[in-house]
């Protein structure tokens, strides 16, 4: 029989699992990993405009995407165009970034799977006498290791030609040149730290759902158990 067990710690772990997965996914898909040096619109673009300021803008570069500003013909309006610069995996600018993409993708897939499974732990707490919380926590820890590997390899690709075109000639492995780190990189780091916190907290969720108080209510025949 399925017993719906809801505790503060188990619900917090479930919510944290979902937040971590979405955080890493958003960071991975973003083009705001590197903020390039300030640029002006080309003179040709400026000639095609009827007005507006010549304020510099900062293009951004991600693992496989980028954002830049374009000026519409005969219009003063400017738009920021974002999209992938690589049409396939082999066109990613650096071999290190390809490795980063692989490790981050593996970590994110595990996190998304664990976020999905965590929702069902409200009703199913174990499979084949194995605690789902402990298994999910172990897999989340493994995902965190994949994320760390990806984040360590990412700066090694700053010396690729694509990064140099954004960051200037002084950019090289682990040296930003004229670039600065964007919010996506910091978000990925924060998400990685939360991943390990989530993995550790899974043990607390296991303790909360298998406590003596829960067992007493199960023996009393209750199917819905809510505990603080």
From TrEMBL:
Pfam families to which the protein is assigned, alphabetical: L_HMGIC_fpl
Key words of the record: Fertilization, Membrane, Transmembrane, Transmembrane helix
GO cellular component, one term: membrane
Location in the cell: Membrane
Membrane topology: Multi-pass membrane protein
Annotated transmembrane regions: 12-35, 96-120, 132-154, 183-203
UniProt main location, coarse: membrane
InterPro entries: LHFPL (IPR019372)
GO biological process: single fertilization
PANTHER family named among the record's database cross-references: LHFPL TETRASPAN SUBFAMILY MEMBER 2 PROTEIN, LIPOMA HMGIC FUSION PARTNER-LIKE PROTEIN
Similarity remark: Belongs to the LHFP family.
Protein name (database record): LHFPL tetraspan subfamily member 2 protein
Species name: Spheniscus mendiculus
Name of the gene: LHFPL2_0
